[in-house]
Structure formats: structure tokens, C-alpha cells
Write a structure and sequence with these properties.
The protein is an alpha/beta fold and about 230 residues long. Helix content is about 50%, strand content about 20%. It has a four-stranded parallel β-sheet, sandwiched between helices. A four-stranded parallel β-sheet has the order 6-5-7-8, sandwiched between helices. It is globular and about 50 Å long.
Length: about 230
């Protein structure tokens, strides 16, 4: 019997969310701590070694470091494990994200939620058909995320990245810089929604200002994960 099954009769404790993030991620766990009510949820983080935000670096992170991190944090008796890397889950499309999460969930002994899969659920729920994508990444990862966001008749009409390939530096641009970059790149674009990718990007702090500046609804990696968690448990 899984922890998720046994906790149905245990109303005394909070829901335990396990979080796997790249080791140099400084944003996502803070967004989850702020976004989930403390009386209902606790967040327990494990780290997967990553310094270079490149395809090769992320494959190494997933294949060599993620399994141990999942097994370790799984000992906390989790109700859900979040795979907190948008670009890593997007490397080979949504089926890859699902497979990675399935394998990690076996090690952690609980259900899983992949970030890019949560993003697609959030995009589907809003009915976006013409989507723009903004990231802090290099072109290779920006293009992979854009491909993974095209689903159910949704077309990506623009995808722009800041070109950052050092993972800890993804958190350096502040909300104002993110808004300025998105506004500059998407000026005049015909779109009905924007996805701002990366769990280590301060996009959630910029979400309201992005919507005001761009005139469309915006989904970020961390807003989608928060939405996905609440959908499962609230």
C-alpha cells in the first residue's frame, strides 16, 4: 500500500510534496513554500547535480543523479513527487517527461508530477491556440520546450530565450528584466497566451506584470506546478 493510499485515513498530518530540483536551482522551492498553505502542505526538496544548463548536462542529471535523489527524498513518506525541471523533461517531448516521472516515482514510492506535463495541462485548461514561449535558456533548450508545448492543436508562434547556460544564473534576471525582455521580443505578435519556462526563473513574481504588459494570460513553470498540486489535492 502506498503512502498516498494510507494517508486517506490520516487527517492529522499535512500533505507531503517531494521536490526534485537541479542542485543549483534557488527559486522553485521558495515559490512552492510561498504558494502552498503551510497548514495543508509541506515541501521536501532533494537536489540533482547540475551546473551547466545544456542538453548534455541535463541528460547526465536525469540519468545519473535524479534516481538517487528520488530514492532519498522518497524516504520522507511522500504523497507526490514533483520533477522540477522544465527543460529536462522537454528534451525528447512529453512522453519522455512521463517516462522519467514514472521511473522516479517507482524509486520514491509515490505518484509524480512533471513540470512540462503540468504546464501542458495548464495551457490546455486555458484553451490557448497561439502560444508564445519565453525562456532564460540557450536556443537548443528553448526550442525543445517550445516543441513540448505544442499539443492538442496549439501552435507556438514565437519562442525566445535569453541565452543563459549557467544554471544558477537563470535566477539572476529580476521580474522587471523578464517583463522587459518579453515585451521587447513579443511586441506586435498575434497570440492568445504566453508560457514563461524554467523553474529557476523568477517568472512567477513577474506574472501579474507580464499579463498587464502583454495583454494576454500567462502561465509559468512554477505557477503550473502549483496549479497541478492543488488540482490533485484540493
Amino acid at each position: 500500500m502506498t503512502v498516498s493510499e494510507t494517508r486517506r485515513g490520516d487527517t492529522a498530518r499535512a500533505i507531503r510534496i517531494g521536490l526534485l530540483v537541479p542542485s543549483s536551482n534557488t527559486v522553485m522551492e521558495n515559490d512552492l513554500h510561498k504558494g502552498l498553505p503551510k497548514e495543508r502542505y509541506t515541501v521536501h526538496t532533494a537536489r540533482m547535480y547540475l551546473e551547466e544548463t545544456t542538453r548534455a548536462g541535463e541528460i547526465e542529471m536525469i540519468e545519473e543523479h535524479a534516481p538517487k535523489a528520488a530514492a532519498d527524498v522518497g524516504t520522507a513518506g511522500l504523497d507526490l513527487l514533483v520533477f522540477g525541471c522544465t527543460s529536462g523533461g522537454s528534451l525528447f517531448g512529453l512522453d519522455y517527461d512521463r517516462k522519467v516521472c514514472r521511473d522516479l516515482g517507482i524509486l520514491a514510492r509515490c505518484p509524480t508530477l512533471g513540470t512540462i506535463s503540468a504546464v501542458n495541462e495548464a495551457l490546455d485548461a486555458r484553451g490557448f491556440k497561439r502560444l508564445a514561449v519565453i525562456t532564460p535558456y540557450i536556443d537548443d533548450l528553448t526550442e525543445a520546450v517550445a516543441r513540448a508545448a505544442e499539443n492538442n492543436g496549439r501552435k507556438v508562434v514565437a519562442a525566445h530565450g535569453m541565452g543563459i547556460d549557467v544554471n544558477v544564473e537563470l535566477a539572476t534576471p529580476g521580474p522587471a528584466e523578464i517583463v522587459a525582455f518579453a515585451t521587447d521580443r513579443l511586441r506586435g505578435m498575434e497570440m492568445d497566451g504566453v508560457f514563461v519556462s524554467c523553474t529557476n526563473f523568477r517568472a512567477l513574481d513577474a506574472l501579474a506584470e507580464l499579463e498587464a504588459a502583454l495583454g494576454v494570460r500567462v502561465v509559468t513553470s512554477n505557477s503550473a506546478v502549483l496549479e497541478g498540486i492543488r488540482k490533485k489535492f484540493d
